[in-house]
Specification:
By secondary structure, the protein is an all-beta fold. The protein is elongated, with a radius of gyration of 22 Å. Helices cover 0% and strands 39% of the residues. The protein has no helices and five strands.
Length: 95
């Protein structure tokens, strides 16, 4: 599973030995830094029990050890705006 921006993950010791205590992590982005095969750098926020961000972190984890808690909302298709009419500008009298 390759995380996407907005995904909420459960990161445990299975993802990396640095996580003696598991964390909940909201992904901002997957960094394209060079890594070993199956490993990746994630940039995001550690979440507390109520889902609030408590600290921003970059973590180095094994892709296979990540567990998806909540998927990011699906992307909406881009809507094209119609052209706006130009605003008629007229002088105003002051004083």
């Amino acid at each position: 599973m390759l995380p996407r921006s907005g995904d909420v993950l459960h990161v445990t010791r299975a993802a990396s030995v640095q996580f003696l205590r598991s964390i909940t992590f909201r992904v901002i982005r997957v960094l394209d830094w060079p890594t070993y095969d199956g490993w990746l750098w994630l940039d995001g926020y550690e979440l507390n029990a109520s889902g609030d961000a408590v600290s921003r972190r970059s973590i180095f984890v094994q892709r296979a050890g990540l567990r998806l808690v909540e998927a990011a909302p699906q992307h909406r298709p881009h809507t094209v705006r119609t052209a706006r009419r130009p605003v008629a500008r007229t002088p105003i009298r002051v004083g």
